[in-house]
Amino acid sequence: MSEKSSADAPATVAPGPAPRAAGSAAPWLSRASLKVRIGAAVVVVAALASVVLVVAQSGSSQPAYSSLPAPCALVSPAIVAKYLPNPARTPESELTDSTYQAGSCKWTSTVGGEDRTLVAQVFVFDSSSSITAARQAYSNTFSAFGCHCRGVTVSTKPINGLGDQAAAFYVTDGPAATVATAPNAGWPGANLLVRSSNAEIALNYDVTSPATGTALAPATGTAQLTGMITMAQSVMDALAQPSAVASVPVSPEPDYTGSPDPCLLITAATLATYAPGAKVKPQPAATGSGSPRVTSCSWGSSGNTLLLTLSTFADAVSARQNYAIDAQANSRSVTAETVTGSVWMPDLGEEATAIFQTRSGGSHGVAMIVWSGNVEISLWYAGSGPASQDRATLLTGGIAMARDVLAALTR
Known about the structure:
By secondary structure, the protein is an alpha+beta fold. It folds into two domains: about 230 residues, no CATH class; about 150 residues, Protein Transport Mog1p, Chain A (3-Layer(aba) Sandwich). The protein is about 20% helix and about 30% strand. It contains six helices and 18 strands. Strands 2, 3, 4, 5, 6, 7, 9, 10 and 11 form a nine-stranded mixed sheet that branches. Strands 12-13-14-18-17-16-15 form a seven-stranded antiparallel sheet. A two-stranded parallel ribbon has the order 1-8. A hairpin with an 8-residue loop joins strand 4 and strand 5. Helix 4 runs antiparallel to helix 6. The longest helix is centred in the last third of the chain and has 20 residues. The chain is globular.
């Protein structure tokens, strides 16, 4: 692990209008555990690691917020369009309870061969100690982002005048980083974390390669930071005047029904490309009823092994929680499995993690875990030949197979 520190002067923003209402806030769950957003951020990239973390605190708290508008309307469409032309907007399910309101939206756009993704999460705490709860949530999240973990680099630069506390950061992780060893590795790209009174706001802007899912080097210039600050101010304005927030068109979060045959979800063309000669081996039908409904199929050849498991839940929140648990569990080495690295992919489904493993018998492969609506897709794609050690081939093949499954479920 390497680490950098920045001695740059604090960035300062002009104060925005103070919020009016009284309210509450929510801890910000993670992209796997801190990020799926449920406790410790998921994974990422076979590349190089670098996190630029930025923090600031201001002394006085602003008036509390009382409600949370539709999450996809929190950031002005005009501001989003500067970074993601013609974006698709999808609200994402968040775990909530009686102590806070939570909202999450994802914007996606493909520009010049790049997949661009913006995720905004907002938590408004509802309790007699809502500001204290928001402060604690911010502190916990900041500690995770600032982790001096293996595979990441951290440097800091203060920002003044944005809410009560703010942290801007840029993240790129290295080949060995996993969610189990580096919770902040699951936040590649440009990020902004803000506490304003009883609300916590988190923004993540990431650019990835569509074919490989790997994060591209994040821009770290003044213009990008200014844009992120403008987005955060837009969220605070919306929280302050929820009645003034205009509705925006959104794509509904997926809700998959039916019982598809998992052996038909990956196309013959994809199998021929990444697992030539593989023969299908239907797995025993799932027994019992209830949620989740689990079905699976496998394929095998002299050179490749492929196992697909499809878990369908009663709702998206349950699927998201299960995805977080599985991403965390698969990122830890055990007796029969050695984890060598991972990649977090915000543009695949709603969230996805690719985890590289060496399993007993010398099998090298990638475990693909994808969350989309009320479904979790799990893929194990491995080879026994020289290509099995090629992460790029494994990752590209795993992504192609996962995209096939998502497309088939939609149909």
